[in-house]
Amino acid sequence: MSRRPIIAGNWKMHNNRAQSEELVCGIRDAIKSIDKDLLPEVVVAPVFTSLDVVSKNICNCGCGRIQLAAQNCYYEAKGAFTGEVSIDMLKDFDTKFVIIGHSERRQIFSETDEMINKKAIAIIEAGLTPIICCGETLEQRELGVTDSHIASQIVKALENVKPSDVANVVIAYEPIWAIGTGKTCDSAEANRVIKVIRTTIAQIAGKDNAEKVRILYGGSVKPETIKEQMAQSDIDGALVGGASLKVDSFVEIIKGAMK
Ligand code: PEP
Question: How far is the CA of 202 from the centre of ligand 1 (A)?
C-alpha cells in the first residue's frame, strides 16, 4: 500500500500576519520548481489570525504544493461559544486540515477524548480532514502503559466515525516527552507504536481502511532525523513544531520526505 507522505508544520502561537506571510512565501518559493509528484503533501498550520494571509499566498502560487491547516476548531456550527471558531468559518480560507487533540490542547486547555471525538466527527462531516494527535507522557512510558494509552486515545477519537471515513483521517503519534524537547523518539520505536495504532484502527474499521490511514510521527523532528524516520515501514510523514518555523529547516524536512 503506498500512502502519500505528509509533512505538516504546526506553527503554534507564533508569527503575526507579516511573519506568517514571510514564512509561507519562503517555503512556497523554495519548493515551487520541485516536481509536484515527488513532493510529500506539504501542510502549514498558522494561527487563526494568519489563515487569510497564508491562504492568499498559497493560492497565488497556483501550483497546489501547500495545503492549509487550522490548529483547532469548535464542533458546533455557530452560537454562544465565545472565543471559538467553527469549521465552516475555517472553510472561508480553503482550510483542508484541522489539527485536533494536540497534547498542548489536552494538557493546557483540558480537552477531553470526548471533545476530540466530537471535533473529528464535525470536521469529517464538513469535508475536511482531521489530523488527530495522540501520545504518551514520560510517566506513562516508564509505567509501560504506552500502547494501551495510545490505543484508548485512538478508539475514543474515532468512536462513531464510519469505517470508510476512518480511511481518510490522519493520525499524528507525538510522544509528549519528545515535543519541543529536542529528544526525538527512536525511529524504530516510533514505528512500533505506529503499528500498534494501525492495528487498533484495523480492529475498529477493518484492515483495508487501516492500511490507507496516514500516520505521522511528531516530536523534535529535524532535518537530520527525517530520512531515518521516513525509511520506517509505517511512518507516513511528520508533524513538525519548532523546525517548521524556519524556511530552511522546514524545506530540508520536506526534501527529506521526497520520493
Ligand atoms: C508539535 O508541537 O506538534 C511538535 C511536534 O513540536 P516539536 O517539533 O517542536 O517537537
Answer: 27
Query: Taking a C-beta distance cutoff of 8 angstroms, is the pair 170, 129 a contact?
Result: yes
Write b or e for each residue in 157-168: b if 16 or more Cβ atoms lie within 10 A of its Cβ, otherwise e: bbeebeeebbbe
Q: Which of these is catalytic: 104, 111, 136, 174?
A: 174
Longest alpha-carbon distance in the chain: 50
Q: Going residue by residue through the chain (259 aa), what tens digit of pLDDT does each one get?
A: 689 999 999 999 999 999 999 999 999 999 999 999 999 999 999 999 999 999 999 966 556 799 999 999 999 999 999 999 999 999 999 999 999 999 999 999 999 999 999 999 999 999 999 999 999 999 999 999 999 999 999 999 999 999 999 999 999 999 999 999 999 999 999 999 999 999 999 999 999 999 999 999 999 999 999 999 999 999 999 999 999 999 999 999 999 999 8
Nearest Cα neighbor of 240 from 29, 69, 52 is: 69
pTM over 0.85: yes
User: Closest residue (by CA) to atom 2 of ligand 1?
Assistant: 241
**CA 218 to ligand 1 center in whole angstroms:** 6
Q: Is 211 a catalytic residue?
A: no
- By DSSP bridging, strand 97-100 and strand 129-134 are parallel
Is there a catalytic annotation at residue 111? Answer: no
φ/ψ region of 172 (left if φ > 0, alpha if ψ in -120 to 50, else beta) reads beta
